[in-house]
TrEMBL record:
Record's protein name: Uncharacterized protein
Alphabetized PANTHER family for the sequence: STEROL DESATURASE (PTHR11863)
Main location: membrane
Compartmental location: Membrane
A GO term from the CC aspect: membrane
A GO MF label: iron ion binding
InterPro entries: Fatty_acid_hydroxylase (IPR006694), Sterol_Desaturase_Related (IPR050307)
Organism, as annotated: Hermanssonia centrifuga
Domain of life: Eukaryota
């Protein structure tokens, strides 16, 4: 991947002493220039990683704020009667920033030495070929989805839900900014699935570049924000890839509290049977569409089903909150 061996970090110019810049593409030159400009690889990686996360997260969330403000898009809103207010979005933003600076920033800042310890390339150029990058990202998606499926279910267990995960369920109708609206402990727990896959891959394979990880983080943030957007467009990815979860899948989880614990894909929930209520809900909506109802009648039917799901979800939430170390409190 690189024709340079690891060198002391006290002089960044030594990192590329034997690199032929004429053989690099534009992006690779910019990458090396960044490390040379900052002068310290640990600082350069930490700063670039944090800026990438913030720019991608808020950059992807802002368009959904705009969409929420335009009534035209309500016909694709999964819960059209629940539009986040400016106060809700500001409260959400503050909590998200708190988690970013108290949990994610320290982890991101320590990632460079940890990455190198596990054999991951950081400052090195050139980048790996796309033939190597794509299978790696596919593995990260599958690994994270399975990790999240089990960890998310664990967070729905009594004490963990009551003291940690409940914050994320504050909004039965989620919106883009709420993707990382969570207790700092939850950010750490579920975020582990995002970075553990690459770390394990680097440990056992030793051919992973942090550039690939940045692509993975970007795609993962897009997935998380879009899944919480609350919109299901005809061109949404789940209509192209039937196994993709998307907002339509995850929105039900927030509305009904139960089912649909995975992130990117539907197969874990399907195999485990943790999508039974969701599939029954979709079947009733599909039947209503086939019944030839008018747009107004269908909207009323959908509102009724949503209210039922949310009511049942509130009851399920109460039960979860009353579970304590294997026992359920009797109300």
């Amino acid at each position: 991947m690189s024709n340079v061996t690891a060198l002391p970090h006290n002089d960044a110019s030594l990192l590329y002493a034997s690199t032929d810049f004429t053989q690099l593409n534009w992006l690779e030159v910019q990458w090396a220039s960044w490390y040379l400009w900052i002068g310290n690889p640990i600082l350069a990686t930490g700063l670039m990683s944090f800026l990438l996360h913030e720019i991608v997260y808020f950059g992807r969330a802002i368009p959904w704020i705009i969409v929420d403000a335009i009534p035209y898009f309500r016909k694709w809103k999964l819960q059209p009667n629940k539009i986040p207010t400016a106060a809700e979005q500001w409260a959400c933003t503050k909590q998200v920033l708190f988690s970013h600076f108290t949990v994610e920033l320290p982890v991101i800042w320590l990632f460079h030495p940890m990455a190198e310890m596990f054999g991951m390339s950081t400052w090195q150029v050139p980048f790996p070929a796309w033939q190597a990058i794509l299978p790696q990202i596919a593995f990260f998606f599958v690994f994270e989805d399975m990790f999240h499926f089990f960890a998310h279910q664990a967070l729905h267990w009594g004490p963990l839900y009551k003291h940690i995960h409940k914050i994320h369920h504050q909004y039965p109708a989620p919106f883009g900014l709420a993707a990382e609206y969570a207790h700092p402990a939850e950010v750490f727990i579920l975020g582990t699935g995002t970075i553990l896959g690459p770390i394990l891959y680097a440990m056992f394979r030793g051919d992973l570049h942090i550039f690939t990880m940045y692509i993975w983080i970007t795609l993962r943030l897009f997935q998380a924000v879009d899944a919480h957007s609350g919109y299901d467009f005809p061109w949404s990815l789940q209509h192209i890839l039937p196994f993709w979860s998307g907002a339509e899948h995850h929105d039900f989880h927030h509305m009904a509290f139960v089912n649909n614990f995975s992130t990117s894909f539907r197969w874990c929930d399907r195999i485990a049977g943790t999508d039974d209520k969701y599939r029954a809900y979709r079947a009733r909506l599909d039947a209503a569409k086939k019944a030839g109802l008018s747009a107004e009648e269908y909207a009323k039917m959908e509102e009724k089903l949503n209210a039922e799901a949310e009511r049942e979800g509130a009851e399920a939430e109460k039960i979860a909150e009353n579970v304590t170390w294997g026992k359920t409190k009797v109300q």
